[in-house]
Design goal:
- This protein has 398 residues and is an alpha/beta fold.
- It has three domains: 66 residues, PUA domain (Archaeosine Trna-guanine Transglycosylase, Chain: A, domain 4); 104 residues, Transcription Regulator spoIIAA; 192 residues, 3-Layer(aba) Sandwich (Rossmann fold), CATH 3.40.50.
- 28% of the residues lie in helices and 31% in strands.
- The strands form five sheets. The protein has a seven-stranded mixed beta sheet with strand order 16-15-14-17-20-22-21, sandwiched between helices.
- Strand 18 and strand 19 form a beta hairpin.
- Bound molecules: S-adenosyl-L-homocysteine (SAH).
């Protein structure tokens, strides 16, 4: 039997939880003396023992667990999970029916009612990501629910919780048909090669779909495009397909070179006509400045934190500096696509970084577009803090 723990929550948290915030924070509950087992059901109550919500215990960077229901009698079982996944899939009916997009998010954790669990669709295959040991303890029921709710061709999974500080280099295959990788998926008519069984990432970040489309459709024609922190070069592919006169992709990871060649190739683009650099972005800025290179469009999409032998970079501290570096190699009238997935600050704060960078650099700017998470990355109503993605498309005015 699954363990059950009663937890008393403070009055501020009660208000938040009843307004629909699903996150259970450690300092808003009275923690029992005995430790709670991952995956235990949490019966959240007020001071006098009155029922507030039912959740599960699962340590994630943000909290100690997630609310699953606010109905006292509702059982957390296969039926519950099936209903949640079915509802989420119904919301994505347009994506399932789409002919030119075959990769999207089917289930977005807390936004679809089960924090710590995401499910992505890749051309019939499902990729399930588990963000805590607690949610992983529901694995059997959730897989039964997934198969009941949708037709799966094959299922793969990623364990994204700390397993004693190590990423387990496991076989990510779960059930059904085994995929042949790279698997080619479509996104607004662009092709992307993905591998569901090759380490922590798949080859494409689905949350940038609308930004890739914007870059292809509105900012690429006859432009030179620099894509920094380029990973597998997805933004470069979008730019090349949009008619860019040239793309330059810069990433530190050695694997980014073959992966970027692959993304170009599956789109019929001759990779030799594009520039791919395995290099530290900050060294590239100095290199470009020395060579007098300038670009019409610069994409900045750094990881929240990055550490190299020489330096550490944190978006919450160093974004203005990154933008200033980018400005030195952006043409007048050019466009900077500034992106961050750092959940620790919001869009308003991000815009202050942008403002500071342009002021310090001494340039004026105009915001052309703003993007946050796309439609399939559902976030809980009234709680914008779960909408971690922030992208601002900025025109440099001189
Ligand atoms: N923009 C990409 C995703 C970026 S993921 C996309 O849309 O697909 C972050 C990438 O930054 C990783 O591939 C990592 O290798 C790279 N990276 C981290 N620090 C770096 C640095 N200092 N210089 C260059 N690349 C870096």
């Amino acid at each position: 039997m699954r363990k059950k723990t009663e937890l008393q929550v403070d009055s501020k948290a009660i208000k938040d939880l009843t307004n629909g915030n699903p996150l259970i924070l450690k300092d808003t509950v009275v923690m029992p003396e005995a430790s709670i087992e991952e995956g235990s059901l949490l019966h959240l109550v007020d001071k006098s023992g009155g029922y507030i919500a039912t959740g599960y215990y699962g340590i994630q960077n943000k909290g100690i667990g997630w609310v699953l229901t606010r109905k006292e009698k509702e059982q957390i079982d296969v039926k519950f999970f099936t209903k949640k996944i079915r509802e989420a899939a119904e919301k994505r009916a347009d994506f399932f029916a789409s002919e030119d997009t075959t990769a999207f998010r089917v289930f977005n954790g807390e936004g679809d009612g089960i924090g710590g669990l995401t499910i992505d669709f890749f051309n019939g295959y499902y990729m399930v990501s588990w963000y805590s040991e607690g949610i992983y303890s529901f694995r059997t029921d959730i897989y039964e629910a997934l198969n009941a709710a949708v037709n799966t061709r094959g299922i793969y999974e990623k364990l994204r919780f700390d397993t004693n500080g190590q990423y387990i280099d496991q076989d990510d295959y779960v059930s059904g048909e085994k995929g042949e990788f790279p698997l080619i998926v479509q996104e607004n008519g662009m092709n992307f090669a993905v591998d569901l069984n090759d380490g922590a990432m798949t080859g494409i970040f689905l949350d940038q779909r609308n930004v890739r489309k914007a870059l292809r459709d509105r900012y690429s024609t006859d432009k030179t495009v620099l894509n920094t922190f380029s990973y597998t070069g997805a933004f470069s592919v979008a730019a090349a397909l949009g008619g860019a006169s040239g793309t330059t992709s810069v990433d530190l990871a050695k694997r980014s070179l073959p992966k970027t060649i692959e993304q170009f190739s599956v789109n019929g683009i001759d990779y030799e006509s594009q520039d791919i650099k395995v290099m530290n972005v900050f060294d590239y800025f100095s290199y470009a400045a020395r060579k007098g290179l300038k670009f019409d469009v610069v994409v900045l999409d750094p990881p929240s934190f990055a550490r190299t032998k020489k330096m550490t970079f944190s978006t919450s501290k160093d974004y203005p500096k990154l933008l200033k570096d980018a400005l030195t190699i952006t043409n007048d009238g050019g466009v900077i696509i500034a992106s961050t997935n750092n959940a620790s600050f919001n869009m308003k704060k991000f815009k202050t970084f942008i403002d500071k960078a342009f002021k310090d650099y001494g340039a004026r700017y105009k915001i052309l577009e703003e993007h946050q998470l796309p439609e399939d990355f559902t976030v809980p109503h009234n709680f914008p803090e779960f909408n971690y993605l922030k992208v601002v498309i900025i025109q440099v005015m001189n």
